[in-house]
Design brief:
The chain is α+β, with helices and mostly antiparallel strands. The chain folds into 3 domains: 204 residues; 136 residues, no CATH class; 64 residues. 41% of the residues lie in helices and 25% in strands. It contains 12 helices and 14 strands. An 8-stranded antiparallel sheet has the order 5-6-7-8-3-12-13-14. It has a 4-stranded antiparallel sheet with strand order 1-2-9-4. Helix 4 runs antiparallel to helix 5. The longest helix is centred in the middle third of the chain and has 29 residues.
Length: 461
């Protein structure tokens, strides 16, 4: 299953770990409210795919029990294998922290805090047992060491602000405080304090830069191929042939009827060319979309960092559809307010074929990021006010005006199937957006039907 994490005001990130080779299928449905102006004119499907949706994969190291037998430590000291191995280790640690943060749900827990503390101590010991000597590896080690120290401290400090932290065991709280103090002494000894100085926004942006640099050796490279170019060329050639055949037939008939080249004939020819240029692009787009309806729109080849070895292939679909075009199981879980048959629904589908060799030395983390800033920009600012009569003891009654913030409710449904699993797994979240970002995000239970109830994943509509 996917775990959800908010990133800033506008972004949601869904993550899971892939451990089995084979075909992984993911369907995502974003049900828009009645008030939205989302359409192919305000935000095209291509713009949504390239600007509001990001589907990425990165390497995670194998669990401890499998790593020792499948990794040659002497070989891994050579670049880029050093960066790939240590980066994979670290992002497995980060994924564990994200799962623990998801389990906390705003309340302090002794079990999750103890596990996070133990994971941080073990990773620090493994990372710092030997500093590399090569300049490139030493630079990567320093960035990884700084970012790990900051990330571990942030998780523990965040836990200290949660409800119920004061009621936890004193020994556990003392251990967490000792780890934070130990990290601060370690930073001073290794001249890391400069990376932690400055305003909070500057420190946050600096750590975000470090994360992107650390991700580079472990993020699978993507080669995007847009499908349908051949179909569009064939449609363009066929439409040109049809229009020119009709035009030639018209000219021959006019020549037989009259041997004179009149002004009316010239105007008729010019009008035919104008109509052709006016309708040609729309005709080609409509015919191409009809011929490719239900077929993938993009193909991705996922390549191993540095070596460029193909690890997986991915087919992608993205369409705006009406509620009546969806399958029955999807319609039944589209939310209570899904009664408008005319509104657009964003339908995204991914089919990933993961090679067995890709999981020999790593597990793979799948990340699906949604950026709602384009949708929030469509929410018009409201200048309306709600007036309230208030009376307080000993005070004269007053009329208070409350500004109203316009908000839109969305419904996000995610359906996935993994190789070897008999059925599908569905997850659903309700989102509330305003012009300033995501106001609320809640997880909802989904009583999804059995596998036999859904015969096909993606209808042609």
């Amino acid at each position: 299953m996917f775990s959800l994490k908010r990133q800033g005001d506008f972004r949601l990130q869904l993550t899971r770990t892939l451990t089995q080779p084979g075909r992984h299928l993911v369907e995502l449905y974003l049900f828009t409210p009645h008030e939205t102006t989302l359409s192919g004119h305000t935000l095209s499907e291509e713009q949504f795919f390239h600007g509001a949706l990001m589907h990425r994969f990165r390497l995670l190291g194998l669990p401890v029990q499998d790593r020792a037998s499948k990794l040659d430590t002497a070989f891994s000291l050579i670049s880029p294998h050093y960066e790939i191995m240590h980066g994979a280790w670290f992002f497995r640690y980060q994924a564990s922290l994200d799962r623990l943060r998801q389990q906390l749900q705003g309340k302090a827990s002794a079990e999750q805090l103890a596990r996070a503390l133990r994971l941080s101590q073990n990773f620090a010991q493994r990372l710092r047992k030997g500093e590399p000597q090569q300049s490139k590896q030493s630079r990567y080690f320093r960035q990884l060491d700084v970012y790990f120290s900051w990330l571990a401290e942030q998780f523990l400090l965040e836990s200290m602000t949660l409800e119920g932290y004061d009621a936890l065991d004193d020994e556990l709280k003392r251990a967490a405080l000792e780890f934070i103090q130990q990290e601060r002494r370690y930073r001073a000894e290794h001249d890391y304090l400069g990376d932690f100085k400055g305003p909070p926004t500057r420190v946050w942006n600096r750590m975000g830069l470090y994360q992107r640099l650390l991700e580079y050796p472990v993020v699978l490279r993507q080669q995007l191929i847009e499908l349908g170019a051949g179909t569009r060329k064939l449609v363009k050639a066929a439409s040109t042939m049809l229009i020119m055949s009709l035009f030639t037939y018209f000219l021959f008939n006019v020549r037989d009827a009259s041997q004179k080249l009149s002004f009316a004939l010239l105007m008729g020819i010019a009008l035919i060319y104008a109509i052709r240029d006016l309708l040609r692009d729309d005709l080609i787009d409509t015919a191409t979309r009809w011929l490719r309806k239900g077929k993938p729109r993009w193909k991705l080849r996922l390549l191993m960092p540095y070596t460029q070895k193909v690890m997986a292939q991915q087919l992608l679909w993205l369409d705006y559809r009406k509620l009546g075009e969806l399958q029955r199981a999807v319609r039944e879980h589209s939310g209570k307010w899904a009664t408008n048959e005319e509104r657009q629904i964003v339908c995204y589908r991914s089919r990933l074929l993961l090679d067995k060799a890709a999981l020999t030395q790593n597990q793979i983390q799948e990340r699906l990021t949604l950026d709602f800033e384009p949708l929030c920009a469509m929410i018009q600012a409201s200048h309306q006010q709600l007036y309230e009569w208030q009376e307080e003891d000993g005070q004269p009654p007053v009329v208070q005006a409350h500004a109203i913030e316009k908000q839109h409710d969305y419904n996000l449904l995610l359906v996935c199937r993994q190789p070897g699993e008999p059925g599908e797994i569905a997850q659903r979240w309700t989102l509330r957006l305003s012009a300033g970002g995501i106001v609320r995000c809640e997880n909802k239970a989904v009583p999804w039907p059995e596998a036999a109830a859904r015969s096909r994943w993606w209808r042609r509509g």
